[in-house]
Amino acid sequence: EEKRYVSDELNTWVRSGPGDNYRLVGTINAGEEVALLQTNSDTSYGQIRDNSGRTAWIPLKELSNDPSLRTRVPDLENQVKTLTDKLNNIDATWNQRTAEMQKKVSQSDSVINGLQQENQTLKNQLIVAQKKVNAANLQLDDKQRTIIMQWFMYGGGVLGVGLLLGLILPHLIPSRRRKDRWMN
Ligand SMILES: Cc1cc(=O)oc2cc(OS(=O)(=O)O)ccc12
What we know:
Blueprint: E1 11-15, E2 24-29, E3 35-40, E4 45-49, E5 55-59, H1 69-172, H2 176-183
Antiparallel strand pairs: 1-2, 3-4, 4-5
(4-methyl-2-oxidanylidene-chromen-7-yl) hydrogen sulfate (MUX) binds at residues 14, 25-26, 28, 34, 48-50, 54-56.
């Protein structure tokens, strides 16, 4: 056998007055929009007006505050379609942005690696340069000490020669004038 489904195209009878005893004047389709004009609380009937402007009475339990699923489903289907489109769009955008970000990150990574290597190289060069400066300073100190020593010895030599000339030579070369002065 084949499967079939009971149609949800249901109809409701409408009557000429607010009660089960008033005559049936027609049928109205499930889901159709009507205006509720007044209600009879004794019989729980409501007076309605359809889109053609005709008025009749219907049991209040046949009326719903919400549109029927038959009219809501197309709206819901449209919403699902719109949301699906948006979601696909967002997904594509997301994938694109993620790819861009990954690309940028990898680019930054290589830049960072380059900078780190350069930094290490510069540090090594700095260490070498500092050692060279220290060695040069030490050599300079040594040279200065040597120069000072040389001047000191030179000065000592000058002093010695001066002493020789001043103290010893007068004794080796006697002068009469000096003796004359001594006697005076
Ligand atoms: C289907 C339907 C809906 C409604 O709200 O009022 C009616 C009133 C009718 O009687 S008439 O006004 O005498 O034609 C017949 C049919 C309807």
